[in-house]
Amino acid sequence: MTDTAGGGPPEIRPSGGGPGARGLASGCAPGTGAPHRAVPAGAGDGPVRRPYFSLRAGEWVFAVAGLPVALVCGVYALAVLYAGTLLSLTVLGLPFVVVALLGARGLGRPHRHLVGALLGEHVEAPAGLPRPDGLVARGRVVLTDPVAWRTLLYLVLRLPLGVLGFAAGAGLPLACGWLIGFPLWGRLMEPDSPPGAGMNALAVLLGLVLLAGAPGALRVVAGADRRLAGLLLGPARAQRRVRELEAARAVLLADNGDRLRRLERDLHDGTQARLVALAITLSLTEDALDPAAGPDLARLRTLVDRARGQTEETVAELRLLTRGIHPVALDGGLGEALPGLTATSPVPVAVRLDLGERPDEAIERAVYFCAAELLTNIARHSGARTAALEAAVRDGRVLLTVRDDGCGGAAPGGGTGLAGLAERLAAVDGTLRVDSPPGGPTEITAELPARL
């Protein structure tokens, strides 16, 4: 474990840092201490707290109008399971189950639409079924399709939830109205012997209690419907993981392609031009060595000095171009690279390292560039006076945490650099968490596997 602090040259310039990475560690405008108009990070990651009696119209409609749909689909699912069990010993068993599973898979589509339109829960549509050649192969695909079986389970579980939702959305309000109006109903039904005052008070009190509990009951059932739909109607975990990895791979390939094109352009427009100028200088030097009147020493000295300067500029430019491919600082591991990185930050950075084991090279590179971009944006945009960087390897995971006391307001999305950084971390199975309320402080944590 080591603790250091740094402060020094003007700024860190990691590869890929630039306009696209602005706002990465802060929502402040450059050169100001005022935050941009940004939603605090994490505000959209969880359920928004609402007043207890606040109900959405869609929740009530889903609870009341969803009962017939739940009854029809639940009966369908139970009938499929019952008939499939009975027919399993006959030649009709497998074809029947295949057709029934296709029907269940199709019923998942309108349910996802209803949950999204009325409950506000977006459920990602699962991938379509592959279509191999031959009826037997296609039937095998359907029988082993986890999405169809999970949708069938959803239809079964939706039946009791539909009943509970109807009871909370329609039964409780009716019961509340009847109990609160019990003194009136009692007088109307039995004018000669109305209920006593104690019975009337008890009925009204019970009605008020049920009225107070009705919004909570309806929201609990709606929350259960959301969670059930998200768990069973979306892609299977393996399919979702494949999609995430495919998206991360596409981002990584696009990023690498952009870097290669940028490197090619810089080599063509910059380094190649410098080498051509150097070649011309050397040709002029050769001409000055053997003139008819003998060598021109003054001109030779000027040309050699020019060639030396052009060589130094070319080497410096090549070093700058290759800087982002593999940092030389990582040759000694993160334990040496991160303190050296923080030492170049104009904002004093306290470093705390607990690196018991060395991660894979790709993970080290991802952690290094993540730290470099976060520290760069702290220096440029946060208005922070101090910062802290912690890195640790525990239980096969690498944790990188960067904090600053700046103006806060950093939020992923909207084209900010945080979204791009999260995508690049996802390419190596990493995640990014942001805690940056307006006014600060900001804490950003990257978590990656130590081994790929």
From TrEMBL:
The keyword Membrane applies. Residues 362-452 form the Histidine kinase/HSP90-like ATPase domain. It catalyses: ATP + protein L-histidine = ADP + protein N-phospho-L-histidine. The lineage of its organism: Bacteria, Bacillati, Actinomycetota, Actinomycetes, Kitasatosporales. Residues 1-21 have a biased composition (Gly residues). Its EC number is 2.7.13.3. This is histidine kinase. It comes from Streptomyces tanashiensis. CDD domains: HATPase_UhpB-NarQ-NarX-like (cd16917). It holds the Pfam family HisKA_3. Keywords: ATP-binding, Kinase, Membrane, Nucleotide-binding, Phosphoprotein, Transferase, Transmembrane, Transmembrane helix, Two-component regulatory system. The chain crosses the membrane at residues 60-79, 85-104, 159-181, 201-222. InterPro entries: HATPase_C_sf, HATPase_dom, Put_sensor_dom, Sensor_HK_TwoCompSys, Sig_transdc_His_kin_sub3_dim/P. Residues 1-30, 432-452 are annotated as: Disordered. SMART domains: HATPase_c (SM00387).
